[in-house]
Write a structure and sequence with these properties.
mainly alpha, hpI Integrase, Chain A, 14 helices
């Protein structure tokens, strides 16, 4: 089998540095192309035909219990890799043309309820440094609609203050998918909680300094017995997994369902509340950092309070007399 690992790495470097793909996307593409090499079993990747690629992205992955929705990044990796090979004139044709994305039914986002986010944000012990930190992170996830990657990558320099209508308002400069940046206003409740964290005496004792002079914003408190070199700067940054564990730690004892105990469930709550309050779609898209407005429109489908109000106002049964009309009138009085 011809080993094309070096070629794969060149492609990934191109996606990372020339196309600005996020590190996580590059890691997913690497896994997909490594598995493609395994699937080819002795056949050079440059000799693959469309049947090979359809077989890999369809039956082969399905037999390994990769669900349809999870196969989409594999298809994207294969199609973009072979398009790159073609553009580099390493192939005289692109065999990935026509390799289909798996069909998946549209799923509505899982949203944490307002009642549950109220219980969750009240769970950390604000008498402790960790509790203050965790409360601030939950506040930014729910109050600013951040992705977890955007949250853990925040530095102190990403917290900004601007004058708006004569008042100082806090903003977060967020860098998320594809290294795209956006500026998100911080609501007053999250603003106050974040300031309490940033001014905490214990935080001032931690060496969060980065080579560029900025400081890691949310820090881990683990491995405090390790050497100073091992517990400074970038090494203190929390991981995505640690945030997931933190949310579960507070939420499960409260009986909050697991499908609501995820940073994206809080992000979806943010989007849903924007839709509930008739925030313009383009403003929602900007606040959420969506490249495609279709990603934003889905929140109109789960804005239940708005839907109920509109049904009560305009449904046809409300315009006529029905066997229950008299009963409903008496209930109103």
């Amino acid at each position: 089998m011809t080993d094309r690992t070096a070629l794969i790495e060149q492609f990934l470097e191109f996606k990372r540095h020339n196309r600005g793909r996020a590190l996580r996307t590059v890691q997913i593409y690497r896994l997909a192309l490594e598995q493609l090499q395994e699937y080819m079993r002795g056949k050079d990747l440059l000799d693959a035909d469309q049947d090979d690629l359809v077989g890999f992205t369809g039956p082969w992955l399905a037999k390994r219990n990769v669900l349809a929705n999870s196969r989409r990044p594999y298809v994207a990796a294969v199609r973009q890799f072979y398009q790159w090979l073609f553009n580099q004139q390493l192939l005289d044709r692109n065999p990935s043309h026509g390799v289909p994305y798996p069909r998946t039914g549209s799923k509505l986002p899982r949203v944490i309820s307002l009642a549950n986010i109220e219980r969750l944000i009240s769970a950390p012990d604000l008498h402790t440094f960790v509790g203050v930190r965790d409360c601030a992170m939950i506040a930014l996830l729910a109050g600013c609609g951040l992705r977890v990657s955007g949250l853990v990558n925040l530095n102190a320099g990403h917290v900004l203050t601007q004058k708006v209508d004569g008042r100082d308002r806090m903003f977060i400069r967020v860098r998320e998918k594809g290294d795209k940046e956006r500026l998100v206003p911080v609501p007053a409740e999250a603003d106050l909680q974040l300031r309490v964290y940033m001014e905490h005496p214990m935080l001032k004792t931690i060496d969060r300094m980065l080579p560029d002079g900025d400081q890691v914003l949310f820090v881990s408190t683990r491995n405090r017995t390790a050497s100073a070199r091992e517990t400074r700067g970038e090494r203190l940054r929390l991981t995505r997994q640690s945030v997931l564990k933190m949310i579960a730690k507070y939420g499960r004892p409260l009986g909050i369902p697991d499908d609501q105990l995820h940073p994206h469930a809080m992000r979806h709550l943010y989007g849903t509340e924007m839709a509930e309050h008739d925030v313009h779609l383009l403003v929602q898209q900007q606040l959420m950092g969506h490249a495609d407005p279709k990603s934003t429109q889905i929140y109109t489908l789960i804005a239940m309070r708005k839907l109920v109000r509109e049904v009560d106002r305009a449904n046809p049964l409300g315009q006529i007399k029905t066997p229950t009309s008299a009963i409903l009138e008496r209930l109103k009085s």
